[in-house]
Amino acid sequence: MEIRHLRYFLAVAESGHMTRAAERLGIQQPPLSLQIKSLEKELGVTLFHRHPKGVSLSDAGRLFELEARRLVEDMAAMQQRMARVARGELGVLNVGFTSSAAAHSFTPEALRACRRAWPGIALSIREDHAAGITDAVEAGRLHCGLIRVPVSQPDSLTFETLLREPVLVALPGDHRLAGARRALKLEDLHDEGFILVRQPGAPGLYANLLALCEVQGFRPRIAAEVERMVTSLNLVAAGAGIAVVPASMQGLHPHAVAYLPLAEGTPLDAPLTLVYRSADAVGPAAHFLKIARETARKARARAPRRRVA
Question: What's the rounded Cα separation, in Å, for the pair 304 and 164?
């Protein structure tokens, strides 16, 4: 039995006549009659009473009509769902982000926009460091990720810079420089203990920072290495050292951490980078990429009106 046999049966049941049903289906009447007889033989029941003016459902036919209609409707619903899947309107989107990317207002804004625009797409969220996210996207475990500075750039992946923001020096609240009402130069930090995110998980931003310190003629003293940027701020709040973080993270521990800008012209910032498989930006992933770019465009348009505290 095939789904077309159910449609044949329903057409005859609804029209009450073999010829009219055949016309409705676009087939000849004799083959339709043969299909109905074959269906009755397969089921072992009489579905229709035949009479000179047409046909009428038997008791078994009325029961079978309920089941046939349910199956045909289920099949139609499944086809519609699959069409939505093909258009990327249904499915699961696996997104990863670093803790510092999550702290940026862009990330929740983009995720909310995706939920509003595509309610049929279920979001599966994962947090990891930049290297872990890059590996997961390359392996297909994630559709895309939001990181800061790329750790590695495999040829199969695309790295798209969505936004850039300044970095701030995070100091313990009782630090001698915490009350300074000026931007800090790197040489001001010559004797400080730096809390860095552990390599190789996220070396990008901190590799750039260390390189700049070398240019200024000193090698920073490493007070601690951690796996997450949020952890580095927890240690700053505890007085264990200083850290350099994206400006969007300055809301963490506001009563225990002072955030000061670096001197104007210091060539160090924090990008927000979207990473995805170059050949696989389809379906839900394609929708999210479009939303991410639009959200970033709006954020850039708002940027001149923002002030960093």
Answer: 13
